[in-house]
Amino acid sequence: MDPTTHISHFSIEVSDGSCNGTANNVDVDPFMDDEFECTVPLKASSSNGQSINHHKASKPNGVSYYEDSSYSGKPHKAEGCNFYLATELYSVIVSSWCVLRGSKIWWLLPAVIASLVVKALNFSEAWLFSLSLLGIAPLAERLGFVTEQLAVYTGATVGGLLNATFGNATEMIISLFALQNGLIRVIQLSLLGSILSNMLLVMGCAFFSGGLVHMQADQKFNQTAAVVNSGLLLMAVMGLLLPAVLHSTHTEMQDFTSKLNLSRFSSCVMLIAYASYLYFQLRSHRQLYDTQDDADESNEESEEVTLSLKGSIIWLAGLTIVISILSNYLVDAIEEASNSLSIPLAFISVIILPIVGNAAEHASAIMFAVKDKLDISVAVAIGSSTQISMFVIPFCVVIGWIAGKPMDLDFHLFETATLFITVIVVAFMLQEGKANYFKGLMLVLCYLIVGASFYVHSDSTSEEAGKT
């Protein structure tokens, strides 16, 4: 048979474990641009009854070929295979099941619908805040999953940038809505809480759980990568500490303006430093992170590709929209919820928001530590803290600058001192490149002290003063 022969109206059987079905009387035009979604062996019978075996081979540029075993020669391009609507619908159902049911905390998904109902019926702000927070948790975890799926199709460098951008997308979305409403202190406290939670609670639980399971010997992780991240965290502390000290010592040349200008300049410097760090990690010194990459590759769950490129983009956009809606509800209700529940706003922002909002991320870090993949656990905890402190916080300052909002790096002395002490403690824990259950216990106990401190801490800046 001539490799360029136009074949039309043949049956295709598809089966790869996730997709099963048969498409009959499919028109094949080698000059069209469509292609099959499933990379699987295909069996086809031509219109004249001749049996032909085909196999799809995906190319880096997305072009697909079907090798015809009934003849020798160069495979011909077989694009333009249009599945019936039922097949497309089945694909949507399968991808939806993979995305939604695959969440480790999928049972919290009904809170998404419940929050929409509560908002529509104008129930109490406390209920709206609680349900929105619970609904964001599984969606944030799924957003990370979809980002990883999309990164498979984009290559290592672009994939790393995607993970860097969407790794803390939930915190960024909440911060942008809070910035729009002028809730500067909510932004500062919630981002500070995410950093403290990741460094003390997440990494502490990971060290403790992994140490109990592997008590016979200390667990090891990539010491070099941890030291680099610790250095970035210390730089972030410097960026937050100097504006706070400048304001507290009343040594500003111009009241308030000097602190704001210093914050904006420091934020630009921190963003440059973070961009340099991404180049260092993804390009110039990738070999320093080989241990972490090997651990990632050994994780079969992370390797499995369950979404197509188009599906990943659609789900990424959809999840971002839903998270944005719930984040808006959460920000609007947080002050009233604080009053209704008689819980200090600082405690809600620093402790409750990060714990519930990042519950799935916390569970993943513990799971990897138990499996003796501590590099991934440390990357989740320290990497996320670095991203928030060196990217999300200065990014919010720059966006506030553009929008005319007085967002600055003055987190106040108590908050900044807490962060400084935390970074020092964590840096000492990471310097050996080893972990055990005792180190984990110490980190968790430190977090309990921090939580109690913020519960009794009276924030000197009221939300009314923080609004613009």
Automatic annotation (TrEMBL):
Keywords: Antiport, Calcium, Calcium transport, Ion transport, Membrane, Transmembrane, Transmembrane helix, Transport, Vacuole. GO terms for biological process: intracellular calcium ion homeostasis. The keyword Cell inner membrane does not apply. GO terms for molecular function: calcium:proton antiporter activity. It holds the Pfam family Na_Ca_ex. It is found in: Vacuole membrane. The chain crosses the membrane at residues 191-213, 225-242, 262-280, 313-331, 337-357, 378-403, 409-430, 437-456. The keyword Transport applies. It is a multi-pass membrane protein. One of its GO terms (cellular component) is plant-type vacuole membrane. Residues 126-282, 312-450 form the Sodium/calcium exchanger membrane region domain. Vacuolar cation/proton exchanger (CAX). Translocates Ca(2+) and other metal ions into vacuoles using the proton gradient formed by H(+)-ATPase and H(+)-pyrophosphatase. PANTHER family: VACUOLAR CALCIUM ION TRANSPORTER. Belongs to the Ca(2+):cation antiporter (CaCA) (TC 2.A.19) family. Cation/proton exchanger (CAX) subfamily. This is Vacuolar cation/proton exchanger. The lineage of its organism: Eukaryota, Viridiplantae, Streptophyta, Embryophyta, Tracheophyta.
